[in-house]
Amino acid sequence: MGNFPKGFLWGGATAANQCEGGYLEGGKGLSDPDICTGGNHTTSKRITPVLEEGTFYPSHEAIDHYHRYKEDIGLFAEMGFKTYRFSINWTRIFPTGEESEPNEEGLKFYENLIDECLKYNIEPLVTISHYELPYELTRKYNGWTSRLLIDLYVKYCEVLFNRFKGKVKYWLTFNEINCGTMPLGNFLSLGILNDGTKDFMNQVDVPQLRFQGLHHQFVASAKVVKMGHEIDPNYQIGCMIAYSTSYPLTCNPDDVLLTQERNRVMNHFCGDVQVRGEYPSYMNRYFEENNITIKKEAGDDEILKDGCVDYYTFSYYMSTCQTADPEKLTAGNLTGGAANPYLKASDWGWQIDPKGLRYTLNEIYDRYRIPLMVVENGLGAYDKIEDDGSINDDYRIDYLREHIEQMGEALKDGVDLIGYTPWGCIDLVSASTGEMAKRYGFIYVEKYDDGSGDFARRKKKSFDWYKEVIASNGEKL
């Protein structure tokens, strides 16, 4: 290959609520994921605003990274990680989100984790908010529907920026912020819990509340970017988008126009605001046709303009096809659409499209011309432990190899790609289904959907493969 630049940030990614565990330890408060039950491939996890005795809540233990982070980071170092993307659990710092002073024990935990990374020359890549809103902010204010959360978030970030100055360079304000454009984002990313069903994936949806909450996140993010640069000019603060590449199913102009609209609203809108610093004109019609009125305060537009991000990161797992023909719509891909007849699918029905990653990188870079990182990508699959203890995940190696090859092609195309952190570098709890059986990692964790398991770590075949990829800077795949 020989395409990856010197200093390319190879690594892996996790999220606090999916890997830490340590439920309510060290002064931690109750977060939204802590009231989500387990689920599986066919049964959605539920939201139980009051914890139910005898109900399994996966985040309470997760994979016990809270107690085993040194072991895990040691394994990441053995693979040769240049960066580790992890998130900070807001409720470890401010248990309800409204305390006047931060929780020192929580800050110390993350300081120790960061120091452990630096010991191995692993660059911390910190997601400030990754689906872990303090539950008290959901209960009292219905999450980000309230503008009060802006100042609470800014206070939280100010504590982090001052505490970890000189140790952390790369920050992300909100994980997959554009999930707020979909009903999926109600509880997941916005902490909105509307009356009605407590099915995690199918919340009662009020688009006005979702998009108002998203506006509050835009303002909060922009304020934090400006503040971060004032605290430390070396800080690089980015956005993070759940990119769901869409193609028209056919060349029927109806399919083409539908695809354009979907790409604008879901894939481009949030990036346009966070990179360009203003609402794009194409959203005016969308808001009008969906009875959405964004309530802004004086100065909001200036705040957005003054708080543009330094770099753009995104997750990429699949592509979808769009069609105006309802009979061709299919289940499977997380964000809907129609099946692409040219692609295979994962065990969870997500269609596998490596070339779509090259296409996506070019689309994003042509649009924004700022550095890019792929901070989530990977294959969720059932892994089997063989009689000799080995885990031969060649299917995962094939998936990652093909996507890395296409990143190399995008670099040839001229894309400024600076890092790659595959998702779930160690097995963890699935955000969408709440299960452990959907495994992504290079490292197997002995933890199962019924809550059993001793948390033992095992290297999969992909562990040594990825180690060689990093050592060769992407030349040996």
From TrEMBL:
* InterPro entries registered for this protein in UniProt: GH, GH_1_N_CS, Glyco_hydro_1
Q: Which domain of life is it from?
A: Bacteria
According to its UniProt record, the EC number is: 3.2.1.86
Give the record's keywords alphabetically: Glycosidase, Hydrolase
PROSITE patterns, alphabetically?
GLYCOSYL_HYDROL_F1_2 (PS00653)
Q: Does the keyword Zinc-finger apply?
A: no
Q: Which GO terms describe its molecular function?
A: 6-phospho-beta-glucosidase activity
Q: Which PANTHER family match?
A: 6-PHOSPHO-BETA-GLUCOSIDASE, GLYCOSYL HYDROLASE
As for family, the record states:
Belongs to the glycosyl hydrolase 1 family.
Q: What is this protein called?
A: 6-phospho-beta-glucosidase
